[in-house]
Design brief:
heterodimer, A: Ubiquitin-like (UB roll), 3 strands, B: two-stranded antiparallel sheet
Chain lengths: ~100, ~325
């Protein structure tokens, strides 16, 4: 009655740009047999209320993610570089538009 | 990092009202509980399409038909958001369907009741979706990211569901005598099962404490049920319909309505599988899955054929 894993449709991640000028945002995932079906399914599942001008679909297996457990060491180099922040710099009050 | 500090880190995220995401470490029980809760929520949406799907071909007007179609389509979408969220926890869609079809997983027992008249569409939208909204709004702040985000989407879409239901009840209750009676009859049949949607009383709900601790449940069953009663009584007054509970009386001291006893025997009986439509709902789902196998297989075969053609063209 239940199918073997081989015939289960692959999993796709869906990204939607809701309005021109905005980024694509991750909306969720869905199963589809190929990219054409994935886009049509994404339209049906995630944009019933016209929430999208552009849809991206990527098979989930092609997404590579950083390991949250390694966040400390991955981001450590940025931790002590406070000079990347504008507030690090003291300017005289007379300086305008900066 | 030792296991001990993974647990501490997880606990501190929970305590600080921060969100747990799919690749974060989580206790096994947290993962198991979430898979069960999210997937049963998903199953409920999909099975929930059936009682209302029953009336699509017999809606009294084109507008009512289009609206009901849109609502049922939304329920399919909600199920899919939730399956997607459950799958981030390491379970496959096939496994989840198998759990539903073999009875290992449950779905909300409200959907085991039959829809006998058009007025049931009104009662379901008003009461069942109303109860669901009351449960789902706090879940928008639940600790697991994909579940919370799915709930935000669902809540945005759910409010039209309740409004269309109430509008049906309003039209019927201001209509002919026959229509008024039909609306009252639907209310009589759906009131108590809707209250049961919030689950057993807190005293008999052993998972509640842990779920509250993990921010998977933000308000208790009884708290939500009381809120629902207070809000809905006022709505029933506008409809000019009578809620079938003679013990409803405003309690000034508590600032809530006191209400009559719920028949928990009926609740447990339906949960165990002896409700009016349990068998029919499950058979319908299994049939849809089995009858659709050739479509799934054909789609895969077609996709593979196209891929092979594209690769051959590239190589040429």
């Amino acid at each position: 009655m239940s199918n073997t894993n081989k015939s289960e449709w692959p999993l796709w991640e869906v990204f939607i740009r809701s309005k021109a000028g905005l980024d694509h945002k991750h909306a969720g995932s869905l199963h589809a047999a190929d990219e054409q079906m994935a886009i049509e399914n994404a339209r049906d599942v995630y944009t019933r209320r016209m929430e999208g001008v552009s849809i991206w679909v990527v098979e989930s297996r092609f997404i590579h993610a950083s390991d949250p457990g390694e966040a400390e060491s991955l981001y450590d180099p940025a931790n002590d570089k406070i000079y990347r922040h504008p507030t690090f710099y003291n300017l005289p009050d007379e300086v305008k538009y900066m | 990092m030792t296991v001990h500090s993974f647990q501490e880190h997880f606990d501190s995220l929970i305590d600080r009202e921060l969100t747990i995401e799919p690749r974060d470490w989580m206790p096994d029980d947290y993962r198991k509980t979430l898979i069960r809760q999210i997937s049963q929520h998903a199953h409920s949406e999909i099975v929930g399409m059936l009682p209302e799907g029953n009336w699509i071909t017999r809606a009294p007007s084109l507008r009512r038909k289009a609206v009901l179609l849109a609502k049922v389509q939304d329920e399919a979408g909600h199920g899919l958001y939730l399956y997607s969220a459950a799958e981030t926890l390491g379970v496959t869609r096939d496994e989840l369907y198998d759990q539903l079809h073999t009875g290992k997983a449950k779905y909300s027992s409200i959907f085991n009741y039959p829809t006998l008249t058009w007025a049931d569409m009104g009662a379901i939208g008003w009461l069942v979706d109303g109860a669901a909204i009351m449960n789902q709004v706090p879940l928008c702040r639940t600790s697991y990211g994909p579940y919370a985000r799915a709930m935000v989407r669902v809540c945005k879409e759910e409010s039209f569901h309740q409004r269309q239901g109430f509008e049906i009840m309003l039209t019927l209750s201001k209509g002919t005598e026959v229509q008024k009676k039909m609306a009252q009859d639907a209310l009589n049949r759906w009131w108590w099962p809707s209250l049961m949607m919030f689950g057993p009383p807190d005293a008999e709900s052993p998972h509640t404490e842990q779920s509250v601790r993990w921010r998977i449940k933000r308000l208790t069953n009884d708290e939500l049920r009381q809120k629902f009663i207070d809000v809905t009584i006022e709505q029933a007054k506008i409809l000019g319909l009578t809620i079938p509970d003679k013990d409803l009386v405003w309690n000034d001291e508590k600032g809530h309505y006191d209400s009559g006893p719920i028949n928990w025997d009926e609740f447990w009986n339906v949960v165990k599988g002896n409700g009016p439509c349990n068998k029919q709902r499950l058979e319908t789902r299994k049939k849809a899955w089995e009858d659709g196998k050739w479509v799934r297989d054909a789609a895969m075969a077609n996709a593979e054929k196209r891929k092979a053609k594209q690769e051959a063209a590239k190589a040429a």
